[in-house]
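To the structural biology subgroup,

Please find below the input and predicted structure for DUF3231 family protein, which we are adding to the shared reference set this quarter. The sequence is reproduced verbatim from the submission form. If anyone notices a discrepancy with their own records, reply to this email rather than editing the shared folder directly, so we keep one authoritative version.
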Amino acid sequence: MDTLIPINISSKKTDLSEKLTSAELAKLWATYMGNSMSKCILRYYLQHVEDQDIKTLLENALKLSMEFMKTIEEIFKKENFPIPKGFSEEEDLNAGAPRLFEDEYYVHYLKYVAKAGMSIYNVAVPLVYRKDVEEFFVYCMESTMALMKQIKDILMGKGLIILPPIIPIPDKVEFVHKDFLNGFLGDVRPLHALEITHLYDNIENNVTSKALIMSFSQVVKSKKIRDLFIRGKEFTHKHIENYMIKLHNEDLPTPSFLDHLVTKSTFSPFSDKLMLFHKMDMFAMKIRSFGNSTAVNGRHDIGLMYTNSLLHIASFVNDAVKLMVENGWMEKPPYAVERNKLANEE
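Predicted structure (tokenized):
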């Protein structure tokens, strides 16, 4: 149903001859990098899948990744922007490696990365102005939402997920009292719906993330990266337990661990570069998730819990970046002009 009154304004801001803004460059570059990685992972998953519904889901996700990359390449070529190296099946994928995950894990993984992709596209849409770029990100959002519907249909249809907790509908409108923020001392109120939502979401994200980093720690070749992965696995497990306790204390259900969906294979299907980038990227996305969680939280104990989680994750991302740089794997995003350097040139 059309609910908005049309506004007809012609503007050169929609002219395709206009230069790409920093926001447009940034989001296109990030989307390309993420999907070049996803392409390799999805190709591998498709080598080891038996459930036909899940196979179709993986094929749909791969098709989107390839389509997104192709569109971005076309935009970049028009602008003479160098196509990012990203990840390739030749250098970063060993498609013949034994199965590392059970079929069920693929569905949980796709839900996690679809959420991450939607957060990128959601931020991009209000910031981009050139018509072709705007239409591209709107399409990315709409097609990823369609994929998410398929993911949820499979999760529900095959009984692979526990729904977010059910809580009573309020009898009347009420206003909070001065003990609303209490979490450690005094009268501590029950969790409200927004707090429950984000605890559930963080558990769901983290059980998927933990299973992935656990699998990577089994197959990675570099000892430095393995040690970092093990550290990430340990604090992720602790974070999950902390979030679960908050819900269990209210007699509310939580998503389950997915560790059992990782096989005991030690043969790596991916390059160390891809695995390190992937976990660095996933943990960086968690920082945004914790920001959203903290923004709607009203209890001091939960706020402190998220702050501690954030510190662990920020430290992991920092160390991951150092290893990426140390190995010469860190690809530069588009930069502003170094004016000071230009001024000092003779």
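Summary notes: The radius of gyration is 22 Å. The chain has two domains: 19-157, 180-326.

Regards,
Lab coordination
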